[in-house]
Amino acid sequence: MPSESSVSDLTAHIGFWLRMVSNHVSRAFATKLADKGVTVAEWSLMRVLYGKEPMPPSRIADDMGMTRGAITKLADRLIAKSLIMREASAEDGRAQTLTLTDRGKALVPDLAALADRNDAEFFECLTTDERERLGRLLKFLAQQGNMTATPVG
Questions:
Q1: What does the DSSP 8-state code read for residue 100?
Q2: Three-state DSSP class for 39?
Q3: Long-range contacts made by residues 1-4, C-beta under 8 angstroms, separation at least 24?
Q4: Nearest CA among 126, 148, 129 for reference residue 139
Q5: Is residue 130's pLDDT more than 90?
Q6: Which domains are assigned to the chain?
Q7: Pairing outcome for strands 84-88 and 96-100
Q8: Start-to-end C-alpha separation, the chain
């Protein structure tokens, strides 16, 4: 049986600190979005659709690393909020596509500004070089771990 002194402390793990920062950054952003009536997952889907032609839910699911069922549930919520719409595909009337409504298109830049402000609030204590290095390191770790799903929760 290992001795108590051989068991690493919780705070000795990089993962602990990543989770600590991530939880606080994410929670603050979720609160800001909630004030606008949108969840992080809904924002992520809206951002994927922004500036693009109507897309089939299956492609969105693949791009975001989510299930088609999850995209359908998100789409249903956003349709109920009049932020996206579901239409028959122009190429195949049996297939459906999703696109932002005018209201959704107008909201995305405001939500993106919230995301920018949220990042600034948490990371302004770092120099530009430190922020860039941190971003590169996190992207490298994500690539090494083949982490491609859009974080929405």
A1: E
A2: coil
A3: none
A4: 148
A5: yes
A6: 23-144 (1.10.10.10)
A7: antiparallel
A8: 37
